[in-house]
């Protein structure tokens, strides 16, 4: 299945981690710093990477081996989450960078399709998301940047995407969600929107469980997937 021609679209919504930025090392370092603080053994980076995508709280719960909340009391989990967030705020840009081709593709889309509005919708807390976007030169491309604590629900609940559609005066059929995980594709599907699955990202293996409208292997393909003006 292909996307509609860009003339029929109004809104592109991008995930952040694993789609616009490679934040793997800073996230895994922050998780292992938290585990060390709690006196727990470190986890392999590859294991922690599989925990990314559902927000900071779930990342911490998975790292503690307690995603269902059966093993630890909530106070312990909140202490762990607080340490993780405090550490990550300081170290979020130690190794994080924009994927190759992202800035060029966003600029190409802006030039070729100036009518298209672009936004970020991530499950990462909103303040780090905005700070990273500002520091890495992403901010000027997006009219809004919403995080996992911007609403009372997170992706794949469609509330965030539906809010962006309302703000951009776009219908679901005029909207494309771009992300590297099943969470992003399900968000699009739950809102009735189109989707692009990014196979280069942190959670690309999860794309096998869903059906994106189309796939891309590099950010450099975004403009060509959308098609000519």
Automatic annotation (TrEMBL):
EC code(s) of this entry = 3.1.3.18
Instruction: Tell me the GO molecular function terms.
Output: phosphoglycolate phosphatase activity
User: Pfam families this protein is in?
Assistant: HAD_2
UniProt catalytic activity: 2-phosphoglycolate + H2O = glycolate + phosphate
Record's keyword annotation contains Hydrolase: yes
Pathway where this protein functions: Organic acid metabolism; glycolate biosynthesis; glycolate from 2-phosphoglycolate: step 1/1
The reply on keyword Transport is: no
Which keywords annotate this record?
Hydrolase
User: What is one GO biological process annotated to this record?
Assistant: DNA repair
What is the superkingdom listed in this entry's lineage? Bacteria
What does UniProt give as GO cellular component?
cytosol
Q: Note the PANTHER family from the entry.
A: PHOSPHOGLYCOLATE PHOSPHATASE
For this chain, the family text in UniProt reads:
Belongs to the HAD-like hydrolase superfamily. CbbY/CbbZ/Gph/YieH family.
Q: What is the name attached to this protein's record?
A: phosphoglycolate phosphatase
Q: What is the lineage of its organism?
A: Bacteria, Pseudomonadati, Acidobacteriota, Terriglobia, Terriglobales
